[in-house]
Write a structure and sequence with these properties.
2,3-Dihydroxybiphenyl 1,2-Dioxygenase, domain 1; alpha+beta; 2 helices
Length: 96
């Protein structure tokens, strides 16, 4: 039986903008103010299932709900659409 979900992961075009949106609109708070980043890390390529990945990210928390957001720097997307900054995983965008 599923009793809960720890977090969801999403990628976005502008990490700082999305971080600000979720904090201001929904009361999320950063788990770690500095966030995280990676590049040329084979283990991360396996974890995110994206070969040659590079990204920065952050984890936000509101109560027991966590959101992990990524802004990929590599590889470049295979599609060029404004609302899809990267064609990997679940992408978010918001108007602020």
């Amino acid at each position: 039986m599923i009793r809960g979900i720890h977090h969801i992961g999403m990628n976005c075009r502008d990490l700082e903008r999305m971080k600000r949106f979720y904090c201001e609109a929904f009361g999320f708070e950063p788990v770690d103010e500095n966030g995280f980043a990676w590049s040329d890390e084979p283990v991360m390529d396996v974890i995110v299932d994206v070969k040659g990945s590079a990204a920065k990210g952050c984890m936000l928390r509101a109560g027991q709900c966590y959101i992990e957001m990524f802004e990929y720097a590599a590889p470049p997307p295979e599609i060029d659409r404004p609302l899809r900054p990267n064609d990997r995983g679940y992408t978010i965008s918001a108007s602020t």
